[in-house]
Design a protein that fits this description.
Layout (H helix, E strand, L loop, with lengths): L2 H6 L2 H16 L1 H9 L2 E6 L2 H7 L1 H14 L5 E6 L4 H17 L10 H6 L11 E4 L18 E4 L11 H12 L14
Parallel strand pairs: 1-2, 3-4
Length: about 190
């Protein structure tokens, strides 16, 4: 759910969507499977607003992150009240505060420093970004981190709650067929 969704939809709809996410984050089966499969679950987005709108959801997010924090095989990142522009603005404000407080020199600002101030700090950039709901755009998802990511779009019949393991497997199989060049020329590859 994007930051725009939270700002532009009715309180009833936001409450219903947050209820879906709370059910997801509190589902003991999901936690157990994540731990068995060595999956680290992370939330990205506006925790401050989630705490305001639904404190029980923020507690559930923090609990599942704590339970899976040692997992190393896979990362599952769930964006809730997330916007790429909002994330960058928050990161830049944090960096500016560091400069003001004398903790950061302007010349120290590079990709690594910016990455450390993003919601995904400590995680690798995504190889694959999956978009549901039939939209053929990224909607600002991981603007900085997703610069070299592969994208997979589902048609309008697949919304987030409907994303099954089989559908995710379909995206992964498609991803596995792609030649990743990371900005380089495929002809020059060895």
């Amino acid at each position: 759910m994007s930051t725009d969704n939270v700002e532009k939809r009715s309180p009833q709809e936001i409450s219903a969507l947050m209820g879906i996410f709370e059910n997801l984050f509190t589902d003991k089966k999901i936690v157990t499977e994540a731990m068995e499969e060595d999956v680290r679950i992370r939330h990205i987005g506006r925790r401050d607003r989630i705490a305001e709108l639904r404190p029980s959801l923020l507690r559930a997010i923090e609990e599942i992150e704590e339970k899976t924090k040692e997992s190393k095989r896979y990362n599952l990142v769930i964006a809730l009240d997330y916007g790429g522009r909002d994330e960058l603005i928050r990161a830049f404000k944090d960096i500016a505060k560091g400069i003001k407080d004398g903790l950061i020199e302007p010349g120290e600002i590079d990709e690594e420093l910016v990455s450390l101030h993003l919601d995904t700090a400590g995680l690798p950039d995504p190889d694959l970004i999956v978009r549901t709901s039939g939209e053929q755009r990224t909607s600002g998802i991981l603007i900085f981190q997703g610069a070299l990511s592969e994208l997979h779009f589902y048609d309008s019949s697949v919304n987030f709650p409907d994303l099954t393991p089989e559908l995710l497997r379909e995206a992964l199989l498609d991803f596995g067929k792609r030649e990743r060049r990371f900005g380089g020329d495929a002809k020059k590859k060895k």
